[in-house]
Specification:
- This protein is an alpha/beta fold and 258 residues long.
- Strand 12 and strand 13 form a beta hairpin.
- The relative contact order is 0.16.
Length: 258
């Protein structure tokens, strides 16, 4: 009897959801400052750490030093995800910005990676898609080419402090397999995007896509238009039992795993 070989884990490279905070306090005559570093990866990391999935994280400030430099290195990962990290972080390495040196385009590398069979997801936030004051700056980049959505030319945030409940649009799609029955918890905002003709819109917020999917070359892409962490994704959503099911399904679909 043949021995069963263990299936290779889906290797996810998650980039973003990190920031530094610089605080100034004034107490009468005295003013002082302090700094701290924060991440909001705990929910997505827990969801994407499973028997068949491995989670790897590059914080925003380490993109320049840690992002794979070749297609072969990037293809070590089955799925790449950007979350709340702007195009400038990829397009402006310090050796280009300060020392005027040419560098390979990291975003073009992602396009080649997907065309060759990789999976890619862009997750919403203040610095993805177009984001606050359009400073996500992904419009007219190669990322817009590979995504299942077109981007607006301006600030695309739809702030919903009252909450807005996602609606399922394709209930039989693989990314919704085993999702709990009933309404999804509301979110508090999202990036407004426009689905391409060949996109599959799986879930919506009002009439806008929340989850849109598309094949690109030999690979697959996902636009997830709200956040995977607070504030847009409140604790009620991050701690909902459907959260982990949904993200594992998205990772498996992007990797081409049943």
């Amino acid at each position: 009897m043949k021995k069963k070989t263990a299936k290779k884990k889906i290797n996810v490279l998650f980039i973003g959801e990190s920031w530094f905070v610089h605080t100034m306090e004034a107490k009468g005559f005295d003013v002082f400052t302090f700094d701290r570093y924060e991440e909001a990866t705990q929910w997505i990391k827990a969801a994407l750490t499973a028997e068949d999935i491995q989670f790897n994280h590059i914080p925003c400030h380490l993109v320049e030093s840690q992002f794979p430099k070749t297609l072969a290195a990037l293809r070590e990962y089955d799925v790449v995800m950007f979350s709340d990290v702007g195009a400038n972080t990829f397009n402006l390495p310090m050796s280009t910005f300060l020392q005027l040196q040419a560098n390979p385009s990291k975003l073009e590398l992602v396009r080649e990676y997907v065309a060759a069979g990789g999976g890619f997801a862009m997750i919403g936030g203040y610095l993805t898609f177009q984001g606050i004051q359009a400073r996500g700056a992904y419009k007219n980049t190669v990322m817009e080419e590979i995504l299942p959505v077109d981007l607006l030319t301006h600030d695309d945030r739809m702030e919903k402090p009252q909450g807005i409940a996602p609606r399922v649009a394709l209930k039989d799609h693989a990314v919704l397999k085993d999702m709990p029955k009933g309404a999804w918890p509301p979110v508090l905002g999202y990036n407004r995007v426009v689905p391409k003709a060949k996109a599959q819109v799986v879930a919506t917020l009002d009439a806008d896509p929340m989850i849109a999917l598309m094949d690109y070359g030999k690979g697959r892409t996902c636009a997830y238009a709200t956040d995977c962490a607070p504030h847009w994704s409140p604790l009620a959503f991050c701690e909902w039992k459907g959260y982990a099911v949904l993200w594992r399904n998205i990772a498996r679909w992007l990797a081409g795993r049943p």
